[in-house]
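G., the chain you wanted modeled:
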Amino acid sequence: MNERTSPFVIDNLRGNKKFPTVWCPGCGNGVVLSAIVRAINKLGLDKNYITMVSGIGCAGRMPAYLDVNTVHTTHGRALAYATGIKLAKPEMEVIVIMGDGDACAIGGNHFIHTARRNIELTAIIVNNRIYGMTGGQYSPATPSGSFSTTSSYGNIDQPFDISKMAEVAGAGFVARSTVYHVAEMESLIEKGIEKKGFSVVEILSNCHTYYGRMNKIKGPVDLLNYFKENTAAASSDDGTKIKRGIFVDRDVRGFIEEYNGVIVKARRMKKYART
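Predicted structure as tokens:
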């Protein structure tokens, strides 16, 4: 029996949910979902001790298909909810699914400060460079000059480099891959989950329905080929291509570890005060 049909993989999907998914045919979200399931499988995590949190957007639907603890939160607030869950249940493996708009626009402040605090969460950011669910508006990650429903003459904003922002803000683990590079993406998700502290795995994904169509890219295969031809390993000297791989992997004390130290200190001081 192979990995794709193993009882463990099937057991981690909610059978009462209608398949195929709600996403457009060819959408990269399904590829990301499959990679997350396989990563959980390989790590041997107990689904009862996994919580997946999402905000609003196309990627926000992802946890609904997984048979783990799930929380579907408000737009941009997934990391805030996830922080509360991790503080209340530190034994939980908390995975946060966000899109580029959800993470870096309305949720940008939460993103920066979660990285600064190095909270023990794994953030998987599906970056399709547009608002795919609400009508194709440009997002903080939309490349300059690209077209969208709110940039009919080309986007004049400079896009965020999501991985670089996570790095400079203090995250313990930062990596990037694409939905074309499936094996690499799956490996980076595994490493992100295993890493203590705040892990950010940015995944470049395709939205051919809006981004592709409005920028004269015919379909999902063309966007996948774009990721193939226009990205390179982090170690590459080619400055014209988007870099993939691990950018940060450092051992920094996480917020929960520090917070537990405060609890111990407070209890000790309270004990001494009584004597």
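DSSP finds ten helices and eight strands in the chain.

Shout if anything looks off.
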